[in-house]
Predict the structure.
Amino acid sequence: MTRTGDGMGMLQTGISSPTIFFPHFPPQAVRQAPSRVLRWLDRQRQRAALAELDDRLLDDIGVSRWAAETEARRWD
């Protein structure tokens, strides 16, 4: 039984590269010329992650709770 359009075809046809089915993210075209929106979204993601760190981890990276919360509230 040969199935096409899914990962099973890779097993049956002997294709050894899983990157055919799992492309890189973000796409290469976006990676080469990131837009302002994508950069902003990435900063917001990083700020949200910073806000979720506990005090021990913040101390490890040398950032105070106040500084982390101030950075997390930024929208620029």
The two ends are 54 Å apart (CA to CA). The chain has a mean pLDDT of 75. Helices lie at 7-13, 28-32, 36-52, 55-61, 65-72.
